[in-house]
Amino acid sequence: MIVKGNSAAKLKIQVLAGGISHERDISLKSGRRVADALTDFGAEVVIREPDHDLLANILKDKPDVIWPCLHGASGEDGALRDILALTGVPFVGASAASARLAWDKSIAKVLVAQAGIQTPPSVTLPKETFRELDAEGVLKAVTQSISLPVVVKPAKSGSAQGVSIVHDQSELNRAMIDAYVYCDVAIIEKFIAGTELAVSVIDLGAGPIALPAVEIEPVDGKFGYDERYTAGETNYFVPARLTPKLADKASEIAIKAHELLGLRHLSRIDLIVDDQGAVWFLEANVLPGLTETSLLPQAVTASGNSLGEVYYSLAEAARNNRG
């Protein structure tokens, strides 16, 4: 069991939700769910948009803690977190510097690989480079080095937006265009077949712990945007159907990645276990989804805790500068 927060303290928490990123709708859902769970546990909660009134609302609300529920660039690229740090009000989640490291998937992959964590081989292609060079020649060279199938994804994006699995060379150019819609840098990464896992990591001040891994089994074989947020499109198994040894290994890698990237309070580390039992790091999520179909809430429930007590404890950890 996770140590419970003290609801008698009745923290005042400002939840930030919405924003202008491609993930605005998901942010609003996450914010509402977090606010409801915190309210049920005894917190005083106000939900605000991160708009031009942001600083004025912080002064007006006088929150003990700010909880940013902002997915996508507006909440996960570090910019807003820099502003929040200037206010002096504690906030839940990664610092601005750590958010920037994890938000850029190409940088996160380099950092974890340097620390000995296995991650699929990849090539990072900025849009300008792709345009200036012989695009077809570049893509042919890439697939000669990294054999098909490959995954093409924006270097900075969430909720699987702009992600394609490419099995044929003829599909690759279209996949690059789709990725560039969301970011000017795309990653072409070797596709690893296996069991897809999401391991949520939380830290309430005593060090990071991994919650039960969630195994993801999309009905149509692809865990895209619709499959993430539409009930019935994906089967989830929590805890994941792994041997104890593999489950421990996945947890160890998730915690190590969380620490390497300097994340705090909460994160979600996405992994895949191949047919030989090797665990591969795919990406780290600065602010995991917190909607009714999201993975971190499922892991919290599977751990035997309520969302309210865990979210409140995370807010306390932020207030006390822990985690």
List the helices and strands and how they pair.
Elements: E1 12-17, H1 24-40, E2 44-48, H2 54-61, E3 65-69, H3 73-76, H4 79-87, H5 96-103, H6 105-114, E4 122-126, H7 127-132, H8 135-145, E5 150-154, E6 164-166, H9 172-180, E7 185-190, E8 195-202, E9 209-210, E10 214-218, H10 225-229, E11 234-237, H11 244-260, E12 266-273, E13 279-285, H12 295-302, H13 307-319
Parallel strand pairs: 1-2, 1-3
Antiparallel strand pairs: 4-7, 5-6, 5-7, 8-9, 8-10, 8-12, 10-11, 12-13
Helix pairs in contact: 1-13, 4-5
Count of helix runs = 13
Q: What percentage of amino acids are in beta strands?
A: 15-25%
Uncertain runs with pLDDT below 50, 5 residues or more?
3-8
The CATH topology of the largest domain, please?
D-amino Acid Aminotransferase, Chain A, domain 1
H/E series, N to C? EHEHEHHHHEHHEEHEEEEHEHEEHH
Mean pLDDT: 91
User: C-alpha Rg, in Å?
Assistant: 19 Å
What structural class do the secondary elements suggest? alpha+beta
Q: State the CATH architecture of the largest domain.
A: 2-Layer Sandwich
